[in-house]
Fold this protein.
Amino acid sequence: MKRTIIEVILALALLGAGAFGWTNWKQNQSATNQVTELKAASEEATKAAAEKAASVKAAEEEMTALRAEMAPLESQAQQLAAVKAAMANGATLADLEAAYKSQKKLSAERQVGLGAVRMLTKGAEDPAAMEAFRKALEMSELGDRKNTICAAQIGLAAAGEKVTIMADCLPKGAKPGAAKGEKAEPGAHEEKSDDKHDHGKSDSHGKPDDKKAPEKHAVHWSYDGDMGPERWGKEFPTCAKGKSQSPLDIRGPFVKTRTVVTTDYKEGPLKMLNNGHTIQVNVPAGSKLRIDGVAYDLLQFHFHRPSEEKIDGKPMAMVVHFVHKNAEGKLAVLGVLLKEGNENPGIKTLWANMPMEEGPEVAPEGVSFNPANLLPREFDFYSYEGSLTTPPCTEGVRFFILKSTVNVAKEQVAAFPFKRNARPTQELNGREITTN
Ligand SMILES: [Zn+2]
């Protein structure tokens, strides 16, 4: 019995020990699992961190590479090559053409832009690029289009066209080719404001030693001497090669036309300038000429002495050219001949405010003017297709020369600051002169 009791106790003790051991092992096991899990998690985190670091590093490397690629191109040639490469797939040209497709007529500036992009895309001798530059050149005749003229001339030259580039167009330091000894003037491309303070001393042509003083600004042409009408064609080929040039010596036979021309000129604030070639009045928007109902805006009018047009070989004392442009860019000039006689009250107002020296536009305070004051009552005309009578002698200009003249006093003619600013008459070359 005693032995049995001992055995039971022993058995119980053993069981207890076993149970303890089990529990202990169990606990150990779960702790190990936890550690393993934690370890795994931490490994994962480490791995993720490493990946992140790697990708950051990769990004940094990429940036460095990009930066290296974006390093400034050293030479202009490299820059140009880069621009060409960027244009090579034609996407830019296609975009530009699509954007301009809806437009009936592109401005000279847009023609230049299109030409430049074409040239960069298709190569220097792309005929369409040259065409665009030519169009731009033809359109750039009025007002201050020098930059556009330069761009188009340089574009054509780059395309291999034999075109003389105006001295003013050449970049700093470049030597003008045909423009005999005239220095490319620094900053000539910039706006005219630079020129403005030089107008006072517009006779300072001969000061070649003073680098800072720009030469008398950009005289590309004149009415006599080295730059006279016979030489205009050198820089402005149309002046020499054109077959429909103005002015004309108007003589019969005439072809009858039913074209109807009316004016609707309005009074507005007077703005005028002496541009070195003539006295020009810039007309605010609103004054119109109508040719068979088609409206042409009056842009400006200016004077020539003597009249550029002759009738049966005879010039008049002066002529006023009213320059108009329609929505499609077509130009029309209405010419009113001034005959020596009584004082002209309209001209009296103009001359009283006229700048005697070349310079920017002036707008005398409180003075208004109606261009209609310079028109005769009768509107019978001679008409022909002609050109601008000043460089670049662009053709496609419709001329209407009124048969009725208006008076101008001898003293008024004498007070006009240009003694002679008339281009000689040009060949008719088979053109018709019509009359209504
Ligand atoms: Zn004119």
